[in-house]
Each structure stands twice: as C-alpha cells, then as structure tokens.
C-alpha cells in the first residue's frame, strides 16, 4: 500500500505553462482520507512553494531547495534544515568568480534569492517561477541562513564545466544540475532523496510504500528511495533509465493520472 507520494514540480507536476491541474486538490482530499502523504519536492524556495500550495492546508509537508528545507506548509513546523556555513559559502563564491566562466551566481536563503547584479534572463526565469529576489552590493549583507549557491548558465552545463566547478569549490558540496540551465550547490547529503529518507524514518514508511515522480537529474536521488519511481515522459532518456516506471509527460497530466489510480479515482 502506498503511504507517501512525492513529486517534483517543474517539468513534472506543472505543465509547461507552470500550471497545476485543478484535479489535484480533490485528489489530495482522497489521499488524506487514505492516510497517504503528498509531498511537493522542488528546488524552488520555501516561500514560493507555500504560495503554490497556499490553499492546500497547513498539514502539507514541503521539501524546498532540493532537500535543504523540509517544513510544513504556511510557515508551519520545521522538520529539517541544513544551511551552508557562511564563510565556506563566501569563500566558494569567490572561487567561482575567479573561474571567469560565462555564468551568473546567486545565493539562496529559505525565502529569497540574492543577486549582485542584474541579468535579464535570470530575472525572467525567477519571475516566471514566482521566485523572490533581491539585489545587494555585497553577499555579507545577507543576515539569514544560506542554503544554496546557485549558478545560472543559459547554454547549460557540460560535464567538464561541472568538474571545474567542483574542483574550484573543493568538491565539498552536493552538485545538482536542475533543468539544464541551473546548477544547485548545497551541503553534502542535501538532496531530494535524503529528504524523502528523513520523512520515511519519521513516519515509518518503507521504500515499497513510497511513490515518487521526477523529470531531471536532481530527481534521481528520489528514485533510489522509492520502489514506485516514475520518470516523466518528457525526461531525458538517461533519467528514465534510472526509474522503474515512466508516466505520461507533464503536459498530459502524467502525475495526476498515476495518482488517480492510487486513489482509486481513475
């Protein structure tokens, strides 16, 4: 019996217009009646996810910033947080700047992305995903916990470029390519899979009782924590190869159709 369903958002639960199907809300009521937990699991900010799911109740658990924050919806109880040491963060940012590569760096806290300079494409990406952003003159102005060093590169990342970034930052972090143009740098062991493991341990849920959905490389760690691992039809072939099942693509309600079967609503 399924007891936990976790899903990525962009390219997975959301269609290409950034919309959540209206059927989800009623489906979650059915899941709740069956004591099945539904967990949005994303690289998005916690504040963004709270807005995405503002009408879905405060008992909803959210996994934000690729697993760096696990917290109940609407500023509820914190289950897990794993911030980056400030000095290590700033030292690493300096090393990234010194690489002189064609990318933009930003710092992510729980509810805000901080940028040193304007980049129209990056600002547009944040705007369409409803991500809060603020411009600062110096990263030392940040006076809250830091959870991610983000890198945005319009042409995407080659393996060689990621390797250069790892070497420059002492290979001391998790490095997750997300949606091709994003590279998320978080503390070691911060990933979606570890967040799912934490919830499984808290609620005594087995791998065989877990169902997850994802479409990109930063979702593979989730696949490892669930017997019912679904890659989306729009996922790259090598991501699909890591999942046990393949759902329809995100524009054809792949997630909703599988959940309907679990809920007995198909």
UniProtKB/TrEMBL annotation:
InterPro entries in the cross-refs: Cof, HAD-like_sf, HAD-SF_hydro_IIB, HAD_sf
Cellular component terms per the entry's GO annotation: cytosol
GO molecular function, one term: magnesium ion binding
SUPFAM superfamilies xref list: HAD-like (SSF56784)
Transmembrane domains' residue ranges: none
Stated name of the protein: Cof subfamily of IIB subfamily of haloacid dehalogenase superfamily/HAD-superfamily hydrolase, subfamily IIB
Region forming the signal peptide: none
Pfam family, one: Hydrolase_3
